[in-house]
Design brief:
Blueprint (H helix, E strand, L loop, with lengths): L7 H4 L2 H12 L2 H15 L10 H25 L20 H6 L6 H8 L3 H12 L4 H8 L3 H18 L7 H17 L2 H7 E10 L11 E2 L1 H16 L3 E9 L2 E8 L4 E9 L2 E8 L10
Parallel strand pairs: 1-6
Antiparallel strand pairs: 1-2, 3-4, 4-5, 5-6
Helix pairs in contact: 2-3, 2-4, 3-4, 4-8, 6-9, 7-9, 8-9, 10-11, 10-12
C-alpha cells in the first residue's frame, strides 16, 4: 500500500468531490460516503500514472453516486411527503474553497437541488458536470459511458427543466433578510393580510417531515393555503417554548433556524421572485437536521 503521505493528491480534491456528490445526491452523509468510497478505491493508485487527477476522481465519484441513486429510488418513491435535500450549513466544505463558496452558492440552493431531484440520474449528472463544474462533453461521455451527443441531449433536457424553476434575478442580501423577517413576523402574528401581501398567487410550500414529525404531506399551493399553514404552525410554536430563533445562511440562502426545547432544530427558507415569495422550503425531518444543532 502507498504510504498515507502519498495520497495528499486525493485530499486536495476532497471538498470539490464532496460538492459533486452532494449536488448529485442531496444528502451530506451519502455524499461523504461516496467520496470516502472513492478514496478507498484509489488509495493504492500511484498519482504519477494519472494524467488528470480531478477528472479521474470526478469520474469515479459520479459513477458511485449513480449507483447510490439507483438503490435510493424506491426509498424516495415511498417517502412520506415531499423529499427535500439535507440542509448544508457550511457550503465551503462542499465547494473546494471559501472563494468558491460564494461563487457557487446559487448552485447549492434548496430550489435547485429540489429541481435536480425531478431529473433522471443521467440528466442530473450531465447537467451538473457541464453547467456547474464546467466539464467538457467528451469527459462526461466517458464518465457516463454514453455518446457526446447523448450527453448534450441529457444536459439540454435538464437545463430546460432547471431554468423554469430558478429565479430570474438574484435577490440582494438586504431584500432577502427583509422578506424573510417580514414573512416570519406575519406568520407569528397570524396576520393573513400581511402574509398574502408577501406571497405570490402561485406560491408553493414544501414541508419535509419524513413521516417522523408534523409537516404538510402534500405540496401546498396558493397564498391562502400557504399563509394559513404558516399561521397555524406558529400558533403551535407559541404553545411550546422554543430555545432559540436565529437567522443563518443555509445552502447559501438566509434561513430561519428554530431550535426547540427538545434540542430539535428545523429550517425555514424562502425563494423570492419579482418582489414576491414564490416558494417556501420547510425542512423538519430530524434525520436531516442533526448537523445544525
Amino acid at each position: 500500500m502507498i504510504p498515507h503521505s502519498d495520497i495528499q493528491w486525493f485530499e486536495d480534491e476532497r471538498r470539490y468531490l464532496q460538492g459533486v456528490a452532494y449536488r448529485m445526491l442531496g444528502t451530506v452523509s451519502e455524499a461523504e460516503d461516496a467520496v470516502q468510497d472513492a478514496f478507498l478505491r484509489v488509495r493504492e493508485t500511484a498519482p504519477e500514472t494519472i494524467d488528470n487527477k480531478r477528472a479521474y476522481l470526478t469520474r469515479i465519484v459520479t459513477r458511485l453516486c449513480l449507483d447510490i441513486l439507483k438503490s435510493a429510488h424506491k426509498k424516495r418513491v415511498d417517502y412520506v411527503g415531499p423529499w427535500l435535500p439535507e440542509p448544508l450549513h457550511d457550503v465551503s466544505d462542499f465547494t473546494g474553497s471559501p472563494a468558491a463558496a460564494t461563487e457557487l452558492a446559487d448552485d447549492l440552493s434548496i430550489g435547485l437541488l429540489y429541481a435536480l431531484e425531478r431529473l433522471t440520474p443521467l440528466e442530473r449528472a450531465s447537467f451538473l458536470l457541464h453547467d456547474v463544474f464546467d466539464i467538457g462533453y467528451d469527459e462526461i461521455a466517458r464518465t457516463l459511458e454514453r455518446s457526446e451527443d447523448s450527453c448534450r441531449q441529457l444536459a439540454a433536457r435538464a437545463r430546460q427543466h432547471v431554468r423554469a424553476s430558478r429565479p430570474r434575478f438574484k435577490v440582494t442580501p438586504d431584500d432577502e433578510r427583509r422578506y424573510l423577517e417580514a414573512f416570519v413576523v406575519a406568520s407569528q402574528k397570524g396576520d393573513m393580510a400581511a402574509l398574502e401581501a408577501l406571497l405570490a398567487d402561485d406560491v408553493k410550500l414544501y414541508s419535509d417531515g419524513g413521516g417522523k414529525i408534523s409537516a404538510a404531506i402534500n405540496i401546498l399551493d396558493g397564498k391562502r393555503r400557504v399563509g394559513a399553514f404558516m399561521a397555524g404552525i406558529y400558533q403551535k410554536f407559541r404553545n411550546h417554548t422554543t430555545a432559540a430563533l436565529r437567522y443563518e445562511r443555509v445552502n447559501g440562502v438566509l434561513s430561519l433556524l428554530t431550535t426547540h426545547t427538545d434540542d430539535y432544530t428545523d429550517v425555514l427558507s424562502v425563494e423570492i421572485t419579482d418582489g414576491k415569495i414564490t416558494a417556501v422550503w420547510f425542512q423538519r425531518n430530524p434525520d436531516k437536521l442533526t448537523r445544525l444543532h
